[in-house]
């Protein structure tokens, strides 16, 4: 049986409806980069989400370079990473909304004081903090309990690399068996699963029943054992994880 003491929350489209806003800003920069390489393809925000959901901008640029077979000098990449961060944060500060029901569940967990709470994201730390501040969720997380694969690690990376979850486990002094992660994307779920953390797959931010069912199946096939379509289901999903044995999850 799992004895869960720590809950790790992904941020984008798990706690905060931020992916569409972020990818709107990313599309302009991605298209600018492709244009400078005389590559005719162009992306909309929706198309970027289809290809790169769950990755941060640095990971997305790595994927673009691999797809279109070009190399970007490190100084140029860093300049675009900073530019993207500023553009996305501006959009989030203006328009971000919480995922439906997420804040209510955070409040219950915070009041119960039974679990330690942390955010584990691929996105830059400034962006994550701006997101949770905009939707009034930052009060549920201690200042040092917000982790970013783009910022918190000595070598920046992106999910599905498990490095950020391994780092969070170390900082929080937890084992995977004491922990559960809530993730909405393939890359996010894989990151936690590769760190041997049981995953609740949240699909409530996907549009329509068909897409939610498709993602539920995809995330279960990757190794998530519990699917949550609405945040009101969270207590039951957590109870299901706590009722499993570690061998049945990993």
UniProtKB/TrEMBL annotation:
Swiss-Prot/TrEMBL keywords: Carbohydrate metabolism, Magnesium, Metal-binding
InterPro entries named among the record's database cross-references: Beta-PGM-like, HAD-like_sf, HAD-SF_hydro_IA, HAD_2, HAD_sf, PGP-like_dom2
Gene Ontology MF annotations: metal ion binding; phosphatase activity
Keyword presence, ATP-binding: no
Co-factor(s): Mg(2+)
PANTHER family: 6-PHOSPHOGLUCONATE PHOSPHATASE, HEXITOL PHOSPHATASE B
Name this polypeptide is given: HAD superfamily hydrolase
Species per Swiss-Prot/TrEMBL record: Aspergillus nanangensis
Lineage: Eukaryota, Fungi, Dikarya, Ascomycota, Pezizomycotina
């Amino acid at each position: 049986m799992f004895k869960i003491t720590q809950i790790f929350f992904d941020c984008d489209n798990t706690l905060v409806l931020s992916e569409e806003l972020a990818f709107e800003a990313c599309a302009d920069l991605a298209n600018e980069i492709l244009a400078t390489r005389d590559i005719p393809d162009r992306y909309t925000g929706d198309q970027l989400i289809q290809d790169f959901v769950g990755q941060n901008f640095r990971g997305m640029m790595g994927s673009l370079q691999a797809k279109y077979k070009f190399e970007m000098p490190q100084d140029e990449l860093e300049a675009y990473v900073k530019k993207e961060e500023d553009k996305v944060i501006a959009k989030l500060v203006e328009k971000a909304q919480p995922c439906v029901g997420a804040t209510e569940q955070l409040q219950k967990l915070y009041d119960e004081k039974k679990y330690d709470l942390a955010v584990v994201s691929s996105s830059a730390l400034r962006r994550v903090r701006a997101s949770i501040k905009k939707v009034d969720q930052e009060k549920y997380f201690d200042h040092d309990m917000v982790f970013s694969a783009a910022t918190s690690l000595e070598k920046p990376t992106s999910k599905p690399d498990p490095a950020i979850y391994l780092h969070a486990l170390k900082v929080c002094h937890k084992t995977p068996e004491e922990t559960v992660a809530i993730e909405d994307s393939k890359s996010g779920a894989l990151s936690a699963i590769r760190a041997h953390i049981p995953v609740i797959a949240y699909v409530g931010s996907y549009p329509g029943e068909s897409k939610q069912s498709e993602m539920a199946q995809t995330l279960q096939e990757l190794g998530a054992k519990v699917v949550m379509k609405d945040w009101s289901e969270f207590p039951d999903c957590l109870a299901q994880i706590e009722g499993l044995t570690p061998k049945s999850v990993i």
